[in-house]
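Researcher: Next entry: UvrABC system protein A (Pseudodesulfovibrio alkaliphilus).
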Amino acid sequence: MHNTDPKNDIRPRNVIRIEGARHHNLKNLTLDIPRDQLVVVCGPSGSGKSTLAFDIVYAEGQRRYVESLSAYARQFLPQMDKPDVDKVEGLSPAISLEQQTATRNPRSTVGTVTEVYDFLRVFFARLGKFYCPECGRPIAAQTTDAIVNTVLAMPEGTKFMVLAPLVEHQKGTHKDLFAKLRKEGFARVRVNGVLHTLDDAPELEKNKKHTIDLVVDRLVIREGMAKRLTDSVELALARGDERMIVTVLEGDGPGRDIAMSTLSTCPSCRISMPRLSPQLFSFNSPQGACPACNGIGSVDYFEPDLIAPNRGLSLNQGGVIPWKSAYRQSQYGPQLKKLGKSHGFTLDTPLAEFPPEAWHALFHGDPATGWPGVVPLLDLSQQQAGVWDHWTARFRQSRPCPACRGARLRPEALAVRVADSNMDEFTSMSIQRALEWLQNLEFTGHETRISEPLLKELTHRLGFMVNVGLEYLSLGRNMSTLSGGEAQRIRLASQLGSGLVGVTYVLDEPSIGLHPRDNERLLGTLRSLQSRGNTVLVVEHDEPTIRHADHIIEIGPSSGWLGGEVVFQGSVEELLKAETLTGKYLRGDLFIAPPETRRKARRAITLRGVSTNNLKDLDVSVPLGVMTCVTGVSGSGKSSLVMDSLYRHLLLHMGQKANSPGTIRGIDGLDLVEKVISIDQTPIGRTPRSNPATYTKIFDEIRKIFAGSKEARTRGYQPGRFSFNVKGGRCEACRGDGQIRVEMHFLPDVYVTCEACKGKRYTAQTLEVEYRGKSIADVLDMTVRQAREFFANHPALVRRLDVLAEVGLEYLRLGQPATTLSGGEAQRIKISRELGKRNLPGALYILDEPTTGLHMHEVGKLIRVLHALVEKGATVIVIEHNTDVIMASDHVIDLGPGGGEHGGRIVASGTPEEIIANPDSVTGGFLL
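Model: Predicted structure:
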């Protein structure tokens, strides 16, 4: 429906007009989206919001731009499918900022994605100075004139010597050197810091290291000495391989040495440095990357706890997983017996009873017995294979590179400093602190002109990142560790710096991961984009964002095939009067009531001395058997505590792979947890073959039902006959896909319905088998609600279908491709699979921002589902900013008080009521 109020009349030239939109579940929509305004699209999860915003507005804008290019250029660009829509008018170039999971490329950091790192490389190359990594002294290449002028600048009357370093810490008597110097007419040398004439040069011990400096001249600062000084400096540099020493004589002491050089070489340590260039600071370039880790910052290694996860087993029982085979036992048996005799164990001794030194010898080798060690043997087999072995990868962990300690750069790059920081130290600062550091820098002389444009660009870009609430991140943070909301706001900050005008920005829930305290800054950022003359189209469930919109479009009335309609379009004031789901929640007709009672925990997991990332040596008790919410402002350390520390150490305890587990002193109560499950919003499958039925194992039950039918038994069909993933019953023309992909080169690939099966995925013979008049293809096309009624006589199947309905997914088709599901739908399908289990004692579920993609009404359903998990004996830990979820929790751990270096402490802990009563809690103020 379109608002026709004269006050809000929108002329066609100021709108994006969409006519006949039927893409996915949209029901032939026709609407006008006002341009140059902040427009919010809201509605239930799966109602069609993203289809409208991304698949139509963004995709069509992008597609038209790409089609304006040459055919040659188009083949290098991703092609957008043409949406199912009759007409789209008034489009401007579109930019999409989605909250998809950040890139998995280990080389992508916050600095590289925002392009700040490119300016930083120039900044350090043009304004940085080398400092010797050994002695810490500045290294600077000077001209002969510069050296002379430095010496002449000393006070008049200063006595000094000009020396040339000849021998540095080298063994020998050096008699030949002394004889040669005497022959050349030199008179004095300094041997091991003591002056001698060459005629009485000391006898040096052959096996000791010595240092010998040639005294070229002895001078006093006075007028008219510049010519002699210049000659002496040139001679000293010639004899000292472009290095020399000026020793200032003070009283009767040995004097104060000043090392000088015309090379970027430390005059004392003789360490040479390369020419300063931006490439030296790139960890993606061989010139700058750490040679040990190739610029990744981490290295893989074989972890004994993964190689032998069950220490209750002996070597003979297969305690070392890679050597379970009889061949391996016979190959290494004699050597292991010899090792056992030396360290007090047999091949039947459980690994748990191995003394620490025996455990170390088993895995890392024992020179005394000649045993090479499990880890070196696995390393050797990996090298001999010459390829990445996916089977042995399960035994490998990653850890910071021991050479660069995670800095990614080679030592020469880390030896360059601006003021007091090198590149790694700067990129490890929080963005807020890095911005302050840059603003406090002072340069003189020609460096002032060089620094001005660089500082301007760097401070502007870092300022944009602060404006979108990311001041707690560091530029060196790997993009794969960020939430979808953080990654989206980083891209938003990059767009702020571009200064584009007349563009349509399409954003997907930019408030994800933001504490309510930080929402105002994000809204200010969106406003700044809009005020420049851009259209900002935001898919959002966040109430403050909806209330700040110029125009609101609500899609509904429900999800899936029950949605796809415009149920409201207009201003905030009009929405507050509307009888739509969002309108009722905004004015308080509908709300999520907190539980009347809070559960009390009897047991807990206790983490001691947690100092992961910005956490400040915390001791934390996480109660078991209740629902706990970990909250706090953005960057306060929530993920560091729950995901990096608790979750990864639980995985390690269970013998599962966990890269870079957090830094803790100890953890108690691990044995109280039998399994740990992290439920996030990643897709349940990456191909159309995956769907709700296959993921939840409902399809297994359905295939058994069909295989048990009279017709199937007569034909001898087994359950596998009804799978579209294996040969037998599936259509081989499309291999069970139901459609065939046709490559179109520089045009988007075209998917055509398979002519053999007409899109049904199965052979005609398979489709002839029916259950209650429906084929297997008909069942896959049913919704959860329809399937529940159809299979009412099968309690086990109905129970699983009921769980899907319980999480609010009764509208989903059983065979809907996983690639078409929203993040919120994928997450709830995962939860439903766990809910389908009868009892869950000892199970611990961790959910990171589960309200992403959920409407206020669905948040209430999610809360009920999470409490259902707890009622079955499970423990639920939620990282969340949503106030309704916090209020529904039994226990709250509030971190803060700020983000980044200002966070990492427990501000408050207890029931939601205790959090509200705590004046130190920022979160508590938003729960009132």
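Model: Note for the record: The radius of gyration is 35 Å.
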